[in-house]
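Posting this for the archive.
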Amino acid sequence: MNTAFHFQEWITSHSECAELALDHLLDSAQTVPHRLHDAMRYAAQGGGKRIRPLLVYAAGQLGDKDSARAESLDAAAVAIECIHAYSLVHDDLPCMDDDDLRRGRPTVHKAFDEATALLVGDALQTRAFEILASANCDAQIRLKMIAALAAASGSRGMAGGQAIDLESVGKKLDLAGLKQMHAMKTGALLSCAVELGGICAHLGPAQMAHLASYAKSLGLAFQIVDDVLDATADSETLGKTAGKDAAANKPTYVTLMGLDYAQKQAKELQEVAIASLDSFGASAQALKDLAFLIVNRGK
């Protein structure tokens, strides 16, 4: 891995940016209704690797720097993290995956209650779009970001992927079906994070196409690694209940193709993702190093 630009320092500084922006753009727990806003902060600020905000910032570095772009990147980073947090809150509910542990802490419906958890997801989702609508940037940029996040979050994106996941319990999916499910459930938001950064950076169509290729490969690699970790890591390492997919009889890359194939496929997708960034030169180093980080997590 090329660390000439000090990747760990970049991770630290941009993770801090994401945390500060989250704290600033989420309503205070002192705002009425207090319990709901407290639970929203619990869900969105309670740990996590902030992969999606980091992808926003990394892609946003590909254009010319200006102060307004920095503010729009903060808005995009927080908006996509709100959508991600809402998806986890709802995913953990008893009517979905029914989990008690998330990011090493009790899930929202355990720390609060099921009704509050449902409302937390609803409110985080709407807050995401409110943040983008108020972003300090050109109106056309705001509109593009809102459209991108809506498409990635809805029935043809994350929510649709979750529906396929639920419908597939106990059933056999072929490799094409598994790829489609993961491209929607996990890949859509990861791709959207990269797209939002590119939009903020005012990249042209050809550059956005290269970013889309990177994001598509990385999104699938991310889910494959998730499947591998679910099968090989313990709950303490994962911060959530290990072995849930196998226990629920869900199709995964490991159950469908075997552990060795899954690990090899993740590595190949990482290489494809990185090669997609060649035209950006050194300015894409953060995106390249994030690909290494994502594929090698847990090692």
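The first strand starts at residue 101 and ends at 102. The longest helix spans residues 205-232.
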